Amino acid sequence: AKHEGRNNFQIYEVSPEYALQHGMALKTRLRHAEGNGELRVVYQPQVDAKSEDIVGMEALVRWEHPELGMISPAVFIPLAEETGLIVSIGEWVMRTACLQAKEWEQRYGLRLRLGVNLSAVQLMEPQLLDTVARVLRETDLDPALLEMEVTESISIKAVPNLVENLHGLHNLGCHIAIDDFGTGAASLDYLRRLPADRIKVDQSFVRNIGVDPDDEAIVRATIEMAHRLKRAVVAEGVEIEQHLQFLREHGCDELQGYLFCRPLQPVSFDKLLAERQRL
Ligand code: C2E
Ligand code: CA
Ligand code: CA
Ligand code: CA
């Protein structure tokens, strides 16, 4: 279990092993998690690499189980995908986060970009575009502020609607980010075939800055390639000053990671924005 303090929703009392053993029971509970108000959305800032201004945020879901405590999305998202619950959970996360982004836009006059993760299961849904269009209409958020994060581990072949759905989302005015870039087998194919505006360099590369020259070379090459293709680059998992310096030096556009901020509950994120406003 991680112990980063309850305020940041970082305590995962349920291990992947537990989840494996109690998968059925968890799935049954998960069915009611949304209705029981046990789901939360936390927000992690993304900052401009030069100014360190907050320019965006990623919405990350949490499950606050009344007996088991906070359950990591790494544990319950796979269960939600197996059961198909991810479709309604994903819609709930999107709506909650869009409402929140709209609120912050109105309160602080800030147009922060909002990253929302999409699962392969959602991307297979023919109704995805209708759902996103409806959420945007109902929350009145500018589509240009919504960025869908699609992990590169999703196979273009295995998800027949993927390319079509992403073009559809792009046509709605949303942005697309390729998540976990460099970890799948299809990085370049993804870049060529999907309407991506942004690349998220995976944390496994960032972690090895200062450690593994090969990974450093991959990070530099990724930034260079992305820029030649006129895509922006965010690095995830920026934890120490050395990461920051390297990424800045090599022209990475934006940064996300514990060095700046952990994912925050809405009240804490709100405080952060209010403080920045006063500076
Ligand atoms: P991801 O999309 O790659 O999200 C980034 C993960 O890295 C988050 O973990 C975040 O808390 C963590 N992180 C951020 N900065 C740092 C850092 O500096 N160091 C380290 N070690 N980690 C950092 P989290 O919130 O536990 O989410 C895990 C994964 O669960 C996400 O990975 C994403 O794949 C999935 N997920 C989370 N929320 C959603 C959601 O609403 N829908 C879907 N489909 N998947 C989600
Ligand atoms: Ca993500
Ligand atoms: Ca990622
Ligand atoms: Ca990941």
TrEMBL record:
All residue ranges annotated as the EAL domain in the record: 23-277
The name this protein goes by in its record: cyclic-guanylate-specific phosphodiesterase
Species in which this protein is naturally found: Rhodanobacter denitrificans
